[in-house]
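Why this split exists: single-chain examples teach little about how molecules sit against one another. For that reason, every record in the complexes split bundles all components of an assembly together and asks for one structure covering all of them. Below is a record exactly as it appears in the raw files.
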Amino acid sequence: MNDVYIVSAGMTKFRKHNYDEDFRLMVKRAFDYALNDADITHKDMDGSVSAYFSDHIQGQLIAGAMTNDYIGLATKPSKRIEGGGATGGLAFQAGYEEIASGNMETCAVYGFESMSHLNTWKGNDVIALGSDSNFDYPLGGFYTAYYALMATRHMHEFGTTPEQMAMVSVKNHGNAMHNPFAQSPMKITVDDVLKSPMVATPLTMLDISLMSDGAACVILASEERAKSLCKNPVKIRAIGSSSDTMRLSDRPFGKVPLLPNESKDDYKNLKYPGVHSFRAGRIAAKMAYERANINDPLKEIDFAELYDSYTSAEIQAYEDLGFCKYGEGGKFIEKGYSEINNKLPVNPEGGLIASGHAIGATGIMQAVYAFWQLQHSVKKHLKNGKLQVENAKRGVIHSHAGTGAYETVSILER
Amino acid sequence: MKNDVKGTEIYKTDPLIKRWDYSLSYTHSYAQDSEFFKALGRNVLLGSYCKQCNYKYGTYRKYCMYCGSETADIELPLKGKIHTFTTCYYSGEPFMNDVPYTLILVEFEGIDSLFMSRLINKNNTKISIGMGVMAKFKSLQKFDVNDVYFIPEL
Ligand SMILES: [Zn+2]
């Protein structure tokens, strides 16, 4: 396989609604940002991968092809990737595969979503169709409820508290204060989160990610092309991905797939994954770590962009990705380890909870932020350096579909 | 007749934003899951058993996800325990009028996986993991998964 690099990246500000720019123009803005930043033109692209989640939300099928012509890539090979919330993460990996296989030397990977087409109740409903429509959806199942079922069990199994979950919200909203691309910068307290309206116990409004309009783009290249296009490209060291049952009810009660720094004795009485943890996240991480030769994630990773669709999910991801052992995720945030310039900063730009969640763009937004962190160019792009993780050499990006029906973990290095 | 002359709903003119309605009615077959939904009308909750794997599914599926062989229908116990729960105060649009409602995953003695259902309970604050629950069946069958629901065990 050929080595793959990110040579440039761009995104739009994520907003509750952007009625002035449709999906095509939002992607053009993100793409042009990336082109301008590295002095590349669209003629340098061998092809593209587009990412958007829902034809229903968009009110437009084959929107990827429409975007592709709008940004000047008609006649080049292109395809659309869809995989729920992991759409962007999967598209990023599909772009990696294009370069790694030698099929392309350069590839634009872009994602978008226009969530503002639907109101929140209708949006909840359309997204809920991304669950079993015979057994789960007709019960009034929707995504906050599914994650809440998991969070309730995580609390029971490990003693995680609503306060600890709230701390994730406080951290991510706080980080977003220094990010002009973020939709919801806020200085809030644990109490504010606990007292915000309950959506599905134990998750309140402020435990939940946003619905956004936005687009994001990264430009990938082979080593040779990367050298000619960019002074400081970032290497995609490894990718990992996995899948799991769509229905929570089908998850088994077995054993933990162990990371190198764990032992069987750590989890003697733990039935895994049940519904407390995301098995696909663990397996995706294990795959990526093995390929990148990472043995102690906490020590060997400098920052992470985790899929915080819910505060509980960020805590669960600390464990799935082995930043701490299963059961220690609540303490991990409580001790401040995931805060900026602590042991392993997580979602330094605000994550899905505060930067925003334009589903198809989200996984690519994570790649954009990780690229800037590793280029040490956060100051340039965010107009201030407060969120720059000092001396960042290696970062991880991570995404979910469904309740972990698909998950991706990608490892980036400077 | 009046409907025919209903105007176009415009939210804004700069940029121009209008309302667009689009809806579908599906011909939805339960296909290989049909037995499960029919059995609810006989007050029976079906699960599935894989003989090859000796694995009992708490949610009906016609083929085993571990070995691929066809499963046999089994009757699930009508009593179980709450494995986890959530009370919803918001929902997707079609369920707006149901809130608050509680969803649970039920575990059954001797069954290897779970079943998702609604818990009908007078007091949503008095629900806990491990609590005993029993299945009830709607008298008027609607042929969806809500034909069964759970209540706290008496
Ligand atoms: Zn089997």
